[in-house]
Amino acid sequence: MYLILAVIILAVLYVVFIYNGLVRARQVAEEAWSGIDVQLKRRADLIPNLIETVKGYAAHERQTLEEVVELRNKAQAVPPGDVAARGQVEGLLSQALGRVIALAEAYPDLKANANFLELQRSLEGIEDEIQMSRRYYNGAARDLNVKVESFPNNLLAGSFGFTKRAFFEIANEADRAVPSVKF
């Protein structure tokens, strides 16, 4: 009798232990995604200032500038939690921003503009923060995915509604290339 009761108590405690581990991993992944989202928002907020500064010097580069604005709006419209779609749009936005920064090469006055230089430094800092946030999120997603897929967690994860997380990555190989910007 006591043995059966002890086995039941141990089984319940084990289920609670697995459940709490899954909850902890999910919360870390959500917090990590929040970090990426904050950095992407900072970059999105910086883009209008960058566009306005460049627009005054490079009026005939309208197509490049409009593309950045369009991609920024698309990125902002991606539903929360759609990591794959957000990664794809943000990759395209990064490339387009690289082309805007590269415009400074053709416009020496723009290249020397203090406001543009400050915006460029801010954008570089934000890009570094996005990269760090992406690595942190992907690590948290990996940890959650391992817990969800590994035995015996996988027996309980599905019944408690835990699912794998998508990694925040650039799907297109061309998007992985860092734009070459020389001043």
UniProtKB/TrEMBL annotation:
The keyword Cytoplasm does not apply. The keyword Membrane applies. Its main location: membrane. It comes from the Bacteria. Keywords: Membrane, Transmembrane, Transmembrane helix. Gene3D superfamilies: LemA-like domain (1.20.1440.20). It is found in: Membrane. Belongs to the LemA family. This is LemA family protein.
